[in-house]
């Protein structure tokens, strides 16, 4: 099985970008170990703090954020970082070419129940001549990403990675500490019978999404004339991984539950990197009205509606939004 650096070199990926990806993965290997230790490492449970987005921070959110932040800033490969757990962006090496946005531990409410969690990252180039301390260097649409990926900490530790030449899976060989290529060019099947929603929010959704899901739930007696299956891991990283592996439609749509927070998922370090992985595997990622990777961000922690997955099913869902 092939190691990550030669695979990326063969693609013509710049050496500095490979080094940056390897730096992120070094932190992820440590995170994989800590998550795997569970209660033994004393990091389960919550802190007494909230992050800037008003969410209770898990101890592992804090630990994993610190790990990634330290290793990235010390490496010299990043000009600046943006993290779900940091109020503002953090400046790094002013001469570096790349900027990284990350969610250090997506689905962290799953840590205490020994369920799936993962690290999501998005890499872009900093605009030429830009200032490392200027937050606006992150205000670029997702189509500018040069690489995106996640590391899923499950029964095995899997990396899904794209540098714009398809989506690949690597598996962490824990005996040697190396990520080995286990699937080249993942393809999301165009059709699916599976969808992922938090159904408890259905009454708060907009009419278009309500009627789309109603029709799926009606099964073979409804307008779709076939039965669908539902799955919900409550960690986007786990749900998107399933979609990449066997197809499906994942959505976290706009809702009216909290008027101050109509959308849940964050554009820069959740929606954009997942959208790139999905599109590179032949799927679609939309808000319902526009391609996720075309959105011009205006805030670091901006939230968006997400509908992604199997091409034909996402198109059907988008049809309800027209
Ligand atoms: O980051 C937000 C997140 O944890 C996603 O990974 C996940 O899809 C969603 O929240 C789960 O939300 P809910 O609490 O509605 O299940």
TrEMBL record:
Gene3D superfamilies recorded for this chain? 3.40.190.80, Fructose-1,6-Bisphosphatase, subunit A, domain 1 (3.30.540.10)
Concerning CDD domains, the annotation shows: FBPase
What pathway is it annotated to? Carbohydrate biosynthesis
Which positions in this protein are listed as binding substrate? 106-109, 198, 264
* Domain (Fructose-1-6-bisphosphatase class I N-terminal) ranges: 16-183
User: Where do the annotations place Mg(2+) 2 binding?
Assistant: 103, 106, 270
Q: Which GO terms describe its cellular component?
A: cytosol
Q: Which domain of life is it from?
A: Bacteria
What is the cofactor note? Binds 2 magnesium ions per subunit.
Residue numbers binding Mg(2+) 1: 84, 103, 105
Q: Which UniProt keywords apply?
A: Carbohydrate metabolism, Cytoplasm, Hydrolase, Magnesium, Metal-binding
Localization annotation: Cytoplasm
What's a BP term from Gene Ontology annotated to this protein? fructose 1,6-bisphosphate metabolic process
- Report the EC number(s), separated by commas if there are several: 3.1.3.11
- Which reaction equation describes what this protein catalyses? beta-D-fructose 1,6-bisphosphate + H2O = beta-D-fructose 6-phosphate + phosphate
According to its UniProt record, this protein's enzyme class is hydrolase
Q: What cofactors does the UniProt entry give for this protein?
A: Mg(2+)
Broad class of the protein's primary localization:
cytoplasm
**Which residue intervals define the domain Fructose-1-6-bisphosphatase class 1 C-terminal in the entry?**
188-321
KW Cytoplasm (keyword) present: yes
Q: Which GO-annotated molecular functions does the record name?
A: fructose 1,6-bisphosphate 1-phosphatase activity; magnesium ion binding
Q: How does it assemble?
A: Homotetramer.
What PANTHER family has UniProt attached to this entry? FRUCTOSE-1,6-BISPHOSPHATASE-RELATED (PTHR11556), SEDOHEPTULOSE-1,7-BISPHOSPHATASE, CHLOROPLASTIC (PTHR11556:SF35)
Membership in a protein family: Belongs to the FBPase class 1 family.
Descriptive protein name? Fructose-1,6-bisphosphatase class 1
Protein's organism? Pseudoalteromonas porphyrae
């Amino acid at each position: 099985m092939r190691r990550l650096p030669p695979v990326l070199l063969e693609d013509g990926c710049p050496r500095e970008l490979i080094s940056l990806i390897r730096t992120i993965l070094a932190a992820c290997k440590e995170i994989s170990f800590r998550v795997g230790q569970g209660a033994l490492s004393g990091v389960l449970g919550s802190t007494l703090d909230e992050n800037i987005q008003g969410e209770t921070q898990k101890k592992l959110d804090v630990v994993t954020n610190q790990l990634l932040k330290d290793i990235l800033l010390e490496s010299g490969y990043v000009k600046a970082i943006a993290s779900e757990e940091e109020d503002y962006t953090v400046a790094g090496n002013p001469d570096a070419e790349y900027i990284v946005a990350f969610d250090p531990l997506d689905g962290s409410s799953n840590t205490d129940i020994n369920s799936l969690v993962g690290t999501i990252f998005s890499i872009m180039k900093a605009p030429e001549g830009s200032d490392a301390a200027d937050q606006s260097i992150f205000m670029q649409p997702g189509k500018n990403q040069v690489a995106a990926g996640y590391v899923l900490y499950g029964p095995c530790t899997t990396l899904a990675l794209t540098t714009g030449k398809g989506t690949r899976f690597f598996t962490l060989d824990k005996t040697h500490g190396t990520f080995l290529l286990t699937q080249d060019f993942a393809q999301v099947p165009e059709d699916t019978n599976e969808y992922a929603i938090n159904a408890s929010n259905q009454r708060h959704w907009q009419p278009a999404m309500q009627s789309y899901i109603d029709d799926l739930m009606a099964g073979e007696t409804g307008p779709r004339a076939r039965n669908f299956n539902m799955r919900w891991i409550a960690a986007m990283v786990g749900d998107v991984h399933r979609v990449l592996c066997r197809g499906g439609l994942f959505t976290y749509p706009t809702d009216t539950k909290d008027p101050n927070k109509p959308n849940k998922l964050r554009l820069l370090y959740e929606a954009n990197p997942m959208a790139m992985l999905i599109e590179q595997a032949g799927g679609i990622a939309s808000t319902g009205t526009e391609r996720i990777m075309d959105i011009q961000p205006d805030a670091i922690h901006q939230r968006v509606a997400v509908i992604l997955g199997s091409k034909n099913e996402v198109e059907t869902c988008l049809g309800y939004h027209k």
